[in-house]
From TrEMBL, chain A:
This is Sn-glycerol-3-phosphate ABC transporter ATP-binding protein UgpC. One of its GO terms (molecular function) is ATP binding. It is found in: Cell inner membrane. Residues 4-234 form the ABC transporter domain. It comes from the Bacteria. Belongs to the ABC transporter superfamily. The gene is ugpC. It holds the Pfam family ABC_tran.
TrEMBL record, chain B:
Part of the ABC transporter complex MalEFGK involved in maltose/maltodextrin import. Probably responsible for the translocation of the substrate across the membrane. It comes from the Bacteria. PROSITE patterns: ABC_TM1 (PS50928). This is Maltose/maltodextrin transport system permease protein MalG. Pfam families: BPD_transp_1. PANTHER family: MALTOSE TRANSPORT SYSTEM PERMEASE-RELATED, MALTOSE_MALTODEXTRIN TRANSPORT SYSTEM PERMEASE PROTEIN MALG. InterPro entries: BP-dep_ABC_trans_perm, MetI-like, MetI-like_sf. It is a multi-pass membrane protein. It is found in: Cell membrane. Residues 70-260 form the ABC transmembrane type-1 domain. It comes from Hoeflea poritis. Its main location: membrane. The chain crosses the membrane at residues 12-31, 74-94, 106-127, 182-206, 212-232, 244-264. Belongs to the binding-protein-dependent transport system permease family. MalFG subfamily.
């Protein structure tokens, strides 16, 4: 097990910076997920940790040792590649053996490790097969076994589930989670799938355009997003963002008016341009006489089983609400809405930063 | 559905037959003439029925050290093949993997080595080898054949190396292997078909080469192609021996190609990525 530390790490291709001086601390045994849209620099960051890409600037340490100039093989890391990268001319057993050979273990120890790992990942029946004779899920497990068998200090996963179908993905995701609990090895895991990130991570690192937007536990990034990008990136369907102005202790937007929650009152001033965010699950339909936040027209309804998604129009604004399916109104109906004030997020209209977390 | 298919099949087989006749007729003439008694060799129409004789073969080996010439050819061809595959594939690997805007120029420069007409460079080669004492040695032929074979190998192998996924090499690098180990254990085995194709081309080219062998070898390093031609003198053309020699020349090439054929399989990297 090892801790990892990135200090002002930059990756530059020619004159173009793709990772802009990021700082990140990963504790021993921690499961950290790098999450972000394609091209955000998460894979590049992982490859720098692996040693497959040079660090252009800054300092990268693994286990308190600066490894900027250390070859991949001497970093004590193992990696599971997005496309598995199994050696096609070797059997499953040989693939694992090949990973062990540089460690110069005794024959009996090599066999013990291979058999143990194979049993752990359910590959014991497949050891004599070649990668071309395996299904996608099996190949994925072989890739994991090959990394696991070396008992590395750090595990690196590069979108390991993206080539699997939805059902298998859930299953392997669970297996990875269990594996981490069992082994306690430090894991850095790259994905663009927020469900993977939320379910697996001790700590999520959300990246965009080569910057870290927020680092925190799954709960933190979901409930206290630091800025508009994180707020809309985490959660599905995405958080609704409504432009508004502060006026008379209220957030006033186009055909919407919401009471400012207590915790924001001291942080805003009259006339300030802001945007407020509300998750689709925090919008409810009113049928009684309570005071409504807004009145909306239902444009499209999407039935999901237990819930229904409503595409709503308020003035020029489009919003999505998630309501219990049995409350689903007809399309084109006028509905009265209530936004849960406790669940409101307020962002500065210009910087997009949350007004809640200004201290950070 | 069935009828046009059948007609197509007939057409394909007819075409194949024509192609086979075109390619096999010379070989048939060589093979049959090599066992025909001299008096009936030029009979018109050709004699189809005759008592075969091996006199040409016995004369071939009796009048000249033909076995030695065979050995010379084999040393030159195999030597050049091994040499070209070793350095050609290493160079190809570098060209395939090193990202540099001038890399294409390097590749074309290597290819340009092959563009010299042999007849234009044979005299300079003669002078060089004479000065360095390599004239009439198999090593001279190995060096010359390799200058032609290496560019071919580089270009063939580069294509095959380009197809080997980078992720495999990265995986091996993380697993603890150095650059040459990765090349030897991962990349090269996956480019085996390319190696086989290159080997076939290198061997056949070297084995069949005539002009350099004629000009740069004498009694010591003479190859079979030159030896066979020596039966064509100003006094007489000994067709029987030429045919027997030619038939023997055919054999190693065929054996070599058949040996390499089992490596000429496609889809070797299947299942590695995705």
């Amino acid at each position: 097990m090892s801790s990892i530390e990135l200090k002002k790490v930059v990756k530059r291709y020619g004159a173009v910076d793709v990772v802009h001086g990021i700082d990140l601390e990963i504790a021993e045994g921690e499961f950290v997920v790098l999450l972000g849209p394609s091209g955000c620099g998460k894979t590049t960051t992982l490859r720098m940790i692996a040693g497959l890409e040079d660090v252009s600037d800054g300092e990268l340490s693994i286990g308190n040792q600066v490894v900027n100039a250390v070859a991949p093989k001497d970093r004590g890391v193992a990696m599971v590649f997005q496309n598995y990268a199994l050696y096609p001319h070797m059997t499953v057993r040989q693939n694992m053996e090949f990973a062990l050979r540089p460690l110069r273990l005794a024959r009996s120890e090599t066999d013990r490790r291979i058999n143990e790992t194979a049993v752990l990942l359910g590959l014991d029946e497949l050891l004599a097969r070649r990668p071309s004779q395996l299904s996608g899920g099996q190949r994925q497990r072989v890739a994991m076994a090959r990394a696991l068998v070396r008992t590395p200090d750090v595990f690196l996963f590069d979108e390991p589930l993206s080539n699997l179908d939805a059902k298998l993905r859930t299953q392997v995701r669970l297996e990875i989670g269990k594996l981490h609990k069992r082994l306690g090895t430090t894991i850095v895991y790259v994905t663009h799938d927020q469900v993977e990130a939320m379910t697996l991570a001790d700590k999520i690192v959300i990246m965009q355009d080569g910057h870290i937007e927020q680092t925190g536990s799954p709960q933190e990034v979901y409930t206290r997003p630091r800025n508009r990008f994180v707020a809309t990136f985490i959660g599905s369907p995405a958080m609704n963002i409504v432009p508004a102005t502060i006026s008379d202790g209220k957030l006033v937007g186009d055909h919407v008016s919401v009471e400012i929650p207590e915790r924001f009152k001291k942080r805003v001033q009259a006339g300030q341009k802001v945007e407020f965010g509300i998750r689709p699950t925090e919008i409810s339909l009113l049928d009684g006489a309570e005071q409504a936040t807004a009145t909306a027209r239902v444009e499209v309804t999407e039935y999901l089983g237990d819930e229904a998604l409503l595409d709503l129009r308020i003035g020029s604004q489009e919003l999505i609400a998630e309501v219990p399916a049995n409350q689903c109104p007809a399309e084109d109906a006028e509905v009265r809405l209530r936004f849960n004030p406790e669940a409101l997020h307020i962002f500065d209209a210009e910087t997009g930063m949350s007004l809640e977390n200004q201290a950070r | 559905m069935n009828r046009p298919n059948r007609r197509q099949a007939v057409l394909v087989y007819l075409l194949l037959a024509v192609v086979l006749i075109v390619f096999l007729t010379p070989i048939y003439i060589i093979a049959s003439s090599s066992v025909k008694p001299t008096p009936i060799m030029f009979q018109k129409p050709p004699a189809m029925v005759f008592t075969p004789t091996f006199e040409h073969y016995t004369q071939l080996f009796a009048t000249r050290p033909f076995a030695k010439f065979m050995l010379n050819s084999l040393i030159a061809a195999l030597g050049s093949t091994v040499f070209s595959l070793t350095f050609g594939s290493l160079a190809a690997y570098a060209i395939s993997r090193i990202r540099h805007k001038r890399m294409n120029d390097v590749a074309f420069w290597i290819l340009s080595m092959r563009m010299f007409p042999p007849i234009a460079v044979v005299v300079p080669y003669y002078i060089i080898f004479k000065a360095s004492g390599l004239l009439d040695t198999p090593l001279a032929l190995i060096i010359i054949y390799s200058t032609a074979n290496i560019p071919l190998t580089v270009w063939l192998m580069k294509g095959f190396f380009d197809e080997v996924p980078r992720a495999l090499e990265e995986a091996a690098a993380i697993d603890g292997y150095g650059l040459l180990q990765i090349f030897w254990y991962v990349t090269l085995p996956l480019a085996a078909p390319g190696l086989a194709v290159s080997a076939v081309f290198c061997f056949i080219f070297s084995w069949n080469e005539f002009i350099f062998a004629l000009m740069l070898t004498g009694s010591n390093a003479q190859t079979v192609t030159v030896a066979v031609m020596s039966f064509w003198s100003s006094d007489a053309v000994q067709w029987g021996r030429i045919m027997a020699g030619s038939f023997i020349i055919l054999i190693p090439g065929v054996i070599f190609v058949l040996t390499c054929q089992r490596w000429l399989v496609r889809g070797l990297t299947m299942g590695s990525v995705k």
